What we know:
Number of strands: 9
Oligomer: single chain
Amino acid sequence: METKERTFTGVKVSGFAALTVMILVVAALCFCVPIGLGLKLPVWILPVSATLGGLMVPLTIVGLTVIEPNEARVVVFFGKYVGTLTDNGFFWINPFNERKKITLRARNLDLPPIKVNDKAGNPVMIGAVMVWKVKDTYKAMFNIDTSSTTSSASATKNSLYAAADPSVKLSKLMQNYENFVNIQGDAALRRIAGMYAYDSHEGASDTITLRSDDGEVSRKLEEEINSRLSIAGIEVVEARINYLAYASEIAGVMLRRQQADAIISAREKIVEGAVSMVQLALDKLEKDNVITLDEDKKAAMISNLLVVLCSDEAAQPVLNTGTLHH
């Protein structure tokens, strides 16, 4: 979707210059009124001058605006979008232009853990954290309804304090954006969680899972959320999974399964090491001509060594005090 955002190119002067001109005009009017009375000018000149001077003060004040770093003003002239003002400083523009305040600063959002099914169908609890900001002011201001997620009580409170504290409007606006991002992020997280398994139980180390993510899952999550938020002109700078666990109803079973996998893996290592040690012992005895063993004695020796090496507990030897064959 192409953007309609553009830079404001209308009349824009320094706010300090506008204030100086206003003060000078008001001072001149105050100075000229008694002079005009002394010169006996036509009666309509003084009221007209006073009216013009009185109108200049509110028009000048209404047209003043302050823009801080990473803030913008979306300028609308009688319902028509005329541009976005992003220059920082103190300015005066046409007072008939409506200036909608919007922040471009990055914000954090913590998506609480939700229950979803992974690719294998196992219920898991998954949560994410993201950093987002407004990228396109036109889309953010006009493509989504920023009033639909605000309760009537909050709207009443904001309307009471809007004139005294402009930050209330800004907080309300950004809260509505945050609600929009929260809902779309939740939907994206559900979709990504269904694309990967929680963990690999078949020993396939090259399989990407939610638990062994090397960056691909986070990248897919960012792409999915950005595709959903592009209509609102919002960009996700970073998104990653910060909570991952099996759901409570299968957590115990999966824990025992993981323990069994760990035990099997450990046993494989133990048996592999024991076989190599037995082979080393037989080769050493044969090489040094310590003793000549027939096949039956070799089998008995191998059996005894494997029992000793693979046993979970210390072996209890039985000493043979008789002959070699008894």
